[in-house]
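Below is our example:

___
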Amino acid sequence: MKILVTGANGLVGKNIAKALHATNQVEVFATSLKKFQLEGVTAFTSNLLNADINHMVDDIKPEIVVHCAALSSPDACEVDRYACHRMNVELTKRIVSACVDYNVHLVFLSTDFIFDGSKGNYTEMDAPNPVNYYGESKLEAEKLIQASGVVNTIVRTSLVYGVESKLSRPNIITRVFDNLSKNKQYKVPSDQIRTPTYAPDLASAISQICLNRVTGIYNISGDQIISVADFAILAAKAFDLNHELLLQVNSKDLAEAAPRPKNTSLVIGKAKNDLNFKPTPIEMALGKIKTTLNS
């Protein structure tokens, strides 16, 4: 089986490429904007915004495309809506078109930010209502995928964390480590509730989706509901850093361009049932990350 992963220089894309390769059942092709290498993976650079997607799919002939490439900073999306729409919606539309033309299964990485955060414990059946443009763009992409008739799986996840070398952008864990290890204070919101997702867990679940050709919408995240501030404190303690440097604040005190939904905790019963998904407990995942950081 051949699988093409887009955005493979990001935390999620890189972990998915590694997880697929580790199955020994897949020939993995991976695109990224910047040059990178991954053992056993055919990696190549491509600016997908300017690429001939049909030619790429025709050339590689994948059975599945896992589409991770996105503009995923909510603030960047809010500030530059044109760039966000171009990357998150128009590019997805072109990838969908190629997948339809060549009868390819599309696995699309979406987000908990399609929800407004007013209630928490969201299932796959709950009605989306994004509060920022990032969430709007991902929801628009979901809708065009579903309207296209392409064979698809939509994966919604939450606050993905982990460490990899030369990542394209930071995440909550790398920000906590980078600031506290330099003895710098770091503000963390105590009023944003998430179900943090360990990147290798998400990758493992998506690998199962690919191998078993599972379709539909899936929430795939951790199953521990926690505030971003409390999660950051757990990370600081796990890494033996001074957690008192973390300043717990309300979202309004962060002066971020994009509003954040309050409670987007996800219910993952469907993934547990259908995919035998077992998320790694936060403390155990942080222990694994500490080992990586110290190696």
In short: The mean pLDDT is 96. The longest strand covers residues 105-111. The chain has ten helices and 13 strands.
